[in-house]
Amino acid sequence: MDLTLALAGLGVGIVVGLTGMGGGALMTPILVLVFGVPPVAAVSSDLAASAIMKPFGGWVHARRGTVNWRLVRWLCVGSVPSAFLGVLLLRLLGDDAAMQRTIKVALGVALLLAAGGLLLKAWAGRKRGGDGPPASITVRPVPTLLLGAAGGLIVGLTSVGSGSLIIVALLALYPKLRANDVVGTDLVQAVPLVAAAALGHAFFGDLHLDIAAAVLVGSIPGVLIGARISSRAPAGLVRSALVVVLLASALKLLDVPNAIVGVVSAVAIVTAIVLTVAGRDRRPAHTEETGTPAREPAALP
């Protein structure tokens, strides 16, 4: 068993536990770019690992009551069959160099969308001024089903989207949902989604159990560690780091020269640091009249 692959799974698992997203968006490009795994094998192996890893996070949220089960049902109605369709489309692309290039481009575009979605989520959080008490929402079946279908198709093709993209779409469709409820709902609906996509790949013989097993050795304890420390972690910094990694991975998958990747990553890091420092400078330590701590602002992207 590849120890470095298990360590990579540990790191990705911690990110998933901390943020509820980043599994496919990080693990698949790591397999392709760092370990030289063919894109189709990377997609199928990551899906299989996610199908076992995600229930740990979903179970925690289900116990805490941060899962909207009506949303889960309608998302799954759309996502499970479309995940199989995504696998079928992947097979129709063939198994030559052109197909591998197509998958890499699709992964790169999906990661760019995920990075933009994380920034949108952070911006929306600042607009709301943080999460308040749970608000009742009216589930809209047709838009929710279509959201699940689109997410399932992308996951079947790339393994990316079961967390980042669907979470962002849920926030746009149901802005009154608290962040915890969005993450919990997405984690639970992602279990049958990634399982369906993984079974589709296994049916066509694309699944590499040795790669999936090595990833799981690290990712399962990583998810548990991330979930335990998530309440104390600086969410804004975690999200900033995730955006930087997503951008760098996307640009590499799109064959952008290393110099440009380095410049973009450096600019993203500097921007995240500036925004974080600016946010802290705007926050007064105590109110002058009462001496009570001022309310902390929402996490920066």
Q: What features would you describe in this structure?
A:
The structure is a single chain. By secondary structure, the protein is mainly alpha-helical. The protein has one domain. Helix content is 75%, strand content 0%. The chain has eleven helices and no strands. It has helices at 3-19, 23-33, 39-64, 69-92, 97-128, 141-158, 164-173, 179-203, 209-229, 235-253, 258-281. Helix 2 (23-33) packs across helix 10. The longest helix has 32 residues, at 97-128. The protein is globular and about 50 Å long.
In terms of topology, how is this protein built?
Blueprint lengths: L2 H17 L3 H11 L5 H26 L4 H24 L4 H32 L12 H18 L5 H10 L5 H25 L5 H21 L5 H19 L4 H24 L20
Helix pairs in contact: 1-2, 1-9, 2-3, 2-10, 3-8, 3-9, 4-6, 4-8, 5-7, 5-10, 6-7, 7-8, 10-11
Please report the distance between the alpha carbons of the first and last residues. 36 Å
Low-confidence stretches: 285-301
Q: Helix segment count?
A: 11
Strand content: under 5%
Rg is 19 Å
Share of residues in helices: over 70%
Question: Quick one: biggest sheet?
Answer: none
Number of strands: 0
Number of domain units: 1
H/E element string? HHHHHHHHHHH
Mean pLDDT: 76
What shape does the CA trace take?
Answer: globular
Structural class: mainly alpha
